[in-house]
């Protein structure tokens, strides 16, 4: 499995970002790390290794970027409005830098997004905000309500980066074309968030799969089982 390291200065986040890319061809899959995780986390915890067959056979090309969790939602040293503004810059980075990069390299006009735990938030938030760019969404143990990080403060940046708030009113036609999998498990601390999001999708008659695995916790072993299964649904 080929692996390449990239580092670049992002004007949208005003910081340097790092990323690992696995494979040399195939459908582009962006995989976000968990809370405050770095670009190498999904490799170190075996998530990328669990889908080695897909990479080696040229079916997918996987991009594992940094996030800016410690500068945005988890930054308790700044006002919640500034946390949201900072995260809005990360969203612009995805729109204007990373997603076009992945599309250009692979020659594919849309991407798949995936992530475990808080990485599932990053994936779902972007997919539901920009469904014209995303054909597949795979979350594993995700949590989707960002208001837990805003200390009771609320503004437009928070609304438009909180899927459980903005999704009910969105009628973008590409939402109904997306392959959506919400992976969770019987003892997952985030199971309730997945059921909540699934109910929103049901109310909108958006097809999706709420995958609740038995006898499993919010942890890497079940996510390593889920990820190859979910990638196999890419058509």
From TrEMBL:
<dbReference type="InterPro" id="IPR050583">
    <property type="entry name" value="Mycobacterial_A85_antigen"/>
</dbReference>
<dbReference type="InterPro" id="IPR029058">
    <property type="entry name" value="AB_hydrolase_fold"/>
</dbReference>
<feature type="domain" description="AB hydrolase-1">
    <location>
        <begin position="89"/>
        <end position="146"/>
    </location>
</feature>
<dbReference type="Pfam" id="PF00561">
    <property type="entry name" value="Abhydrolase_1"/>
</dbReference>
<dbReference type="InterPro" id="IPR000073">
    <property type="entry name" value="AB_hydrolase_1"/>
</dbReference>
<protein>
    <submittedName>
        <fullName>Esterase/lipase superfamily enzyme</fullName>
    </submittedName>
</protein>
